[in-house]
Amino acid sequence: QVQLVESGGGLAQPGGSLRLSCAASGIRFSATVMGWYRQAPGKQRELVATITSGGTTNYADSVKGRFTISANNAKATVDLQMNSLKSEDTAVYYCNVRRIVTPVSNYWGQGIRVTVSS
Predict the structure, then answer these.
(1) Are 111 and 94 spatial neighbours (Cβ–Cβ below 8 Å)?
(2) Which residues contact 65 (CB under 8 A, 6 or more apart)?
């Protein structure tokens, strides 16, 4: 059974930093895309950043230059370093892992809250 467990959320001041971590069990990071998504109150879930098991990254325009996604394939972990935080980064952040070869599958963590406020 695949489980994704997020950690590292909480409260940060504008301009501050937080680091989110996601530990996966029951799945290998091979032919996978790992990512972070977020959902703010009253809004749809949106992509924040993804990284493939080959190391290719992709970022939402709103976080480029401020957030960095990284992954450790051997440990099956994916992290999101968030710097220069803004109030609009406040949301529940979800870890996601997608296997892109047969059997194609998609997994979500339970979500972790990030609040940016002074």
Answers:
(1) yes
(2) none
User: What residues does 23 pair with on adjacent strands?
Assistant: 5, 77
Whole-number Å distance between alpha carbons of 101 and 99: 6
What is the tens place of the pLDDT at every residue in 47-92? 999 999 999 999 999 999 999 999 999 999 999 999 999 999 999 9
Q: How many angstroms separate the CA atoms of 97 and 66, rounded?
A: 22
Coil, strand or helix: which one is 77?
strand
Q: What is the largest CA-CA distance in the chain?
A: 46
pLDDT of residue 51: 98
